[in-house]
Design brief:
Strand content: 25-35%
Oligomer: single chain
Number of strands: 26
Largest sheet: 8 strands, mixed
Radius of gyration: 21 Å
Distance between the termini: 57 Å
Number of helices: 10
Helix content: 10-25%
Structural class: alpha+beta
Length: about 400
């Protein structure tokens, strides 16, 4: 229980306490905040007032210093927050640092070091295999042996509500025609979950599955916008490039791993035994998250994250098994989250079957791919202790016309 009045359906109960960066009309300097109910707690100012030894890591314009401080500091501050917000004796000290969330401008929560995107949902990968390689096996021979991924562009990872400017590039209308240049006609969303690295690792030392929580600070939502026509022409033989690199949107709140302990779940049964460094039978890191995707406010999909074939711990183990170093602020995303049902598909290329079967929206309109002016909103929830529901915030993007050449 907390002395603070929090609505029963708030996505930010005491059991959540996600971190972000915010400004207010009376203070333009970005600062670290913690969401609690309808408020944002100015974490750095309170930590400084209370003389916490690591207060300077919270007195910053990004989460990077605090994330780099490591699990003992993360745990201690979470315990401090819960103590301050539950024991009425602290109320007079805490209340001056609570600000209305409605008045806060939420900014990019961390400085991105590197960005990697994976392709770890079997339902999504199999559907795309049917679409892109008809008549062949839907999954490539390596898919069930390792988490497939690619390095994205860290410089275009931006916070929710950043305009989605329709990208231009090369595409080929058909196999019989020459490539053309112009705005993408197949702009798509991809509902994903992102994992943010706090503690770096040295070059040459892999991060084992069981060390996942020693490095990963928390979880955010990701929309990996995709230009499917650009992607289809360019992806062979090296994979995604301009079709993905124009923008990747992330939610403004990072939910700490500690808040999601009650959402941990075994991954789906695998029909191919993983190699030892990916064998997570003793430390599974599946998460029971339910995503929701809305197009112009209309619900179009509810992808279940618990059905992801490869977990975030396996992704991190594979990402570093060759000795690649982690840095504070590294972001790796799950890949599109989709389920087996028609209303669980996490992208329009699946929902409209690459444009062959237009998606009917509740308002009577249809979509094959995104139109200028469309707004996509991705949200997610997770089960918390005592039956509460935790929210991961939202990641929003509105499509704008292409930039003039």
């Amino acid at each position: 229980m907390t002395w603070l009045s929090i609505a029963a359906d708030s996505p930010f109960p005491l059991e959540n306490l996600p971190y972000g960066i915010f400004t207010t009309p009376d203070r333009a300097e970005p600062r670290v905040g913690v969401a609690i109910g309808e408020y944002v707690l100015a974490a750095g100012a309170l930590a400084t007032d209370q003389g916490l030894r690591y207060a300077r890591t919270l007195d910053a314009s990004t989460l990077n210093p605090f994330m780099a401080a490591g699990p003992p500091v993360w745990h201690d501050f979470r315990q401090q927050l819960r103590r301050w917000l539950t024991d009425d004796v602290h109320r007079a000290v805490v209340e001056p640092h609570l600000l209305p969330l409605a008045n806060a401008l939420l900014l990019m929560p961390f400085e991105v070091a590197d960005y990697v995107d994976f392709y770890s949902c079997e339902h999504h990968a199999a559907r795309l295999g049917q679409l892109l390689r008809p008549g062949q096996e839907p999954l490539t021979p390596n898919w069930k042996h390792l988490p497939i991924g690619y390095h994205g562009r860290a410089g275009t990872v931006r916070v929710s509500d950043t305009p989605v400017v329709r990208p231009s590039g090369q595409s080929r209308p058909s196999a019989a025609e020459a490539p053309v240049f112009g705005p993408s006609g197949k702009l798509d969303f991809e509902a994903e979950v992102g994992f943010v690295v706090g503690v770096p690792s040295p070059l040459g030392k892999p991060v084992a599955l069981e060390d996942f929580a020693d490095h990963v600070f928390g979880v955010c939502l990701v929309n990996d916008w995709s230009a499917r026509d650009l992607q289809a022409w360019e992806y062979a033989p090296l994979g995604p490039f301009l079709g993905k690199s124009f923008l990747t949107s992330v939610s403004p709140w990072v939910v700490p791993l500690a808040a999601l302990e009650g959402a941990r779940t075994p991954p789906p049964t695998r029909d191919v035994a993983p190699l030892p460094y990916l064998d997570d039978s003793s430390c599974p890191w599946g998460l029971d998250l339910t995503l929701e995707v809305r197009l112009n406010g209309q619900l179009v999909s509810r992808p279940p994250f618990r059905q992801m074939y490869w977990t975030a711990a396996q992704q991190l183990a594979h990402l570093t098994v060759n000795g690649a170093a982690l840095r504070t602020g590294d972001l790796f995303a799950s890949g599109t989250v989709s389920g087996p049902a028609d209303d669980e598909r996490g992208s329009l290329i699946e929902l409209s079957w690459n444009g062959e079967r237009p998606l009917a929206l509740p308002d009577g309109s249809t979509r094959t791919f995104l139109q200028d002016g469309d707004t996509v909103t991705v949200t997610a929830t997770a089960p918390g202790p005592g039956g509460v529901t935790l929210g991961l915030g939202e990641v929003i993007g509105t499509v704008h016309p292409p930039a003039t050449q």
